[in-house]
Structures
1.
Amino acid sequence: MRHLLYKMSVYVVFLAISLIGARTAAAAPDALIAQAQKAVQKGINYLHRVQEKDGSWSHYPGTTALALAALLRNGHNELNDPAVAHGIQYLLHLVKPNGGIYDDRDPNLALPNYNTSLSMMALYLTHNPAYKPIIAKAQKFLEDSQFGATDGMKPSNPFYGGIGYGSDPDDHPDLSNLATALEALKDTGVPANAPVWKRAIIFLQRVQNRKESNDQAWAKTGPNDGGFVYDPLGGSKSPQGYRTSYGSMTYEGLKSYIYCNVSRKDPRAQAAWNWIRSHYSVTTNPGMGTAALYYYYHTMAKTLAVYGQKYVIDTHGKPHDWQKDLIQQLIRLQHPDGSWFNTNARFWENQPALVTSYTLIALAYCLHPNS
């Protein structure tokens, strides 16, 4: 893979132009923007300090890809930051002949679909044309991993259209993995008419608490609140249990509908939006408390940027400037060493490299929502 770094003549020019655009996309400077930029720099400095000698973060492709995305979305690249170049080389050494990008030395941690999704997004964010063939193979790997794509599964199966971790043949799909894969496919340019999107919509309907469009039995007697759960059998990670909608999955569900070309005015998307309006928060992950809090922040920022609305008007009619609210909250939560981490260890959120990456990505979407 070493020769890939030499294919950069056109890339250098493109990168210079894109960075100028990224800088001008930010809102007019003010005290809060300056504070946010300072917090971002402290977070970047932290990631630089904790990068492993092999170029990874935490010796794991998913964490490495998120850290790279955090750096790349905040103005760093292979040319101006050796940490990015080193991290990209780590990912390139994990590219498999089947198109996946993952470490298969420990089957329990391979999580091929999850790691491929995040890794291909990191490669894409470099805007390095040398990686296009790798990304194209990764796209096919993810598309083929969708339930119903190549396995003969019928649309009547609850798992149809979903994507799971991909670790074993008995793997079950879930909204989190599907949403990550759809984001990777959308960002890297899979056409809007590709079959993956229509299949995904069927799965998305089955993880939404909306009986009008969810054909699963659990939804008929569920809360019917428009929010989303984790899996199509009604499984939820919320401590309130089965069929309970919660924040991070509802943002993932709405974002995924948009990526699947569902109109924002569609009743399914509007039901999710109304759930978000009635549960607006930057202090907790609604329905989950502090669990998966930083995953929630980064998903919230992505979704609201994609949705394209400056203010979230809650169900009491109060407008919320989500960018301002989220920036202020994330600045408050930063630790003196520049890192972020969660005292609630669920979902690995006690790991500063992972959580700092989530946060820097969220701040990038707050500062540059249109980039």
2.
Amino acid sequence: MGTKYQHVQDLWRDDEVASLDPVARLVYRSNKLGADQRITNTGGGNTSSKLPGKDPLTGESVPVLWVKGSGGDLRTSTRENFSSLYQDRVVGLQNIYAARADKGLKSQAEDDMVGMYTHATFNLNPRATSIDTPLHSFIPARHVDHMHPNAVISIAASARCEEITREVFGGAMAYVPWMRPGFELGLAMQEICGKNPAATGIMMGQHGFISWADDDGECYRRTLGFIEQAGAHIEAKYAAKGGDAAAFGGGVFESLPEEVRRKVLARLLPWLRGQVSKQKRFVGTVQDDHRILRFVNSKDAPRLAELGTSCPDHFLRTKIKPLYVAPDAALKDFGDAAIAAFAEHLKAKLSAGLDQYRKDYAGYYERCKRANSPAMRDPNPTVVLLPSIGMVAWGKDKSESRVTAEFYNCAVEVMRGAEAIDRYIALPQQEAFDIEYWLLEEAKLQRMPAEKELARQVIVVIGAGSGIGRETALRLSREGAHIVCVDL
């Protein structure tokens, strides 16, 4: 059995990896890291191994960088999700980059390097290479993990990040301030490794962390160890400040009983879906568990919600900030008439809030846009926070809305941790914009397959238990619709 931890789960088993080839061991490590959402979120993080490979042209053994490619999820990744590159050629790109007069952070030269990775492809591997490839290539270790755990991001998103990193990890973890992922960040990490030979990890300000080792099992457990240290530090500080009772400044709203929440949402959600679907239809996920209610009911929720999220992985799903709308007065009468009136009151508050949110988003776009920025995207919120009720997350389908909810849950946990140890800070809006509207992100969106004919639709099929009704439901689902099957 694996080592016991309190804040992560050790899933590595030596007997399971003993018979695996080196690339399969990388896949195994990735799957185990991705299986624990306390380690990284859906689709987030990447892993790599530098392994010997037989050059198909020369027959010689050459170092090959295997790194999780663009897209995909660590938990479900297979060998096909990993790109393979000649390690020496990726490192050699530093010479090409150094010769560019226009090099620098967020420069055209930096973006152009992404297109150069294909020239370093080993054995015609078709998997698109990750933007994080330089981070993995330039770290002088065989195995590298880059993760986005809530506990570590809580430190990364705190005002005194560098100081707290030293306090918690000592010299084992170095520090790099926020930099957009890419070639410059890889170069910065290479320099940091040279200056901090005792370090086995780097805290990435307002982002996550990276860790490494020359043995893959040691790399896995080193990653877990850093997260465990961060989690233990945060929970000790959190408890000392009063724990749940004092979280986010303490509660100012009371949660409605579950049955009442359902009745309010039944009146609210069809209308709200129409409001946020002005440009494209959305499908929602409601979440009202203890952690979300603790946040939305709190004194500090309006302040923290307005600050927005920190980790780039979060706000690409959740937008720059959520919409927070509180009622003018708590619902005390749980009769049907009072619930109906309360729902109408919330509609009025939400209508005004949505108008302001769209204006704020347009203002954010106008303030931050570059000459070559893509056109403004849908200005409607993808996360709506309702004190006493919970959170509604939106996406193009049920799966995406669930991931949106997951990501804002991560953001809430990051804010909880950062406020426990220090003070939470979000990315500056310009930095957030330069990720959200990055041309490389836009290109990724454009490569996504076209939506099916009935995508984003919710269709009720009556008599779906058998016969024509069942076949109709199956056909509609194949066309991308969300199906509610009803039968008597």
3.
Amino acid sequence: MKRVLIIRSTGFQHLDRILGRLKDSYSQSEICLLTHQHGKPLAEKYADINHVYVYPHTGAFSPLRVPDELVREVFDVVIVPVGNITGSGFLNVLLLSFRIRADSRLICNISLDFRPLTRLALIISLLKGIVFTVIAGVITVVTSLLLLLLWIVSSLSYGKSED
């Protein structure tokens, strides 16, 4: 029997849709869920979920704080739901998934597209994010300097025209 862990990083509506899709691929599997304490009561009501693990820390999931309960566990698949198309903004959860022992990892976006999540793909995503941040910073600085220069020149020329 395969063991599947879903890290609940999005709303329960997304989880509903994911569970519906998993019935086809993982019908004979043990489905487990990692959620925060406030999500446990609702998660335990799902007939499709065999076990609910509670993330014992408040705040966002962190790869530095893996629940003790999960350190010993091994899963066939870890699924990371993300609330957009690309997975941007979910880096902490993606990194946490690599701290949990599993044969494979999948990222599931809001459109229910399941894609393999590999260390290489995560590193490339990180590097792209860094490059885009640097480019945005450079563009902001250059634009600000040009606008400042334009303002200084216009202030000087405005002051001369009054004389």
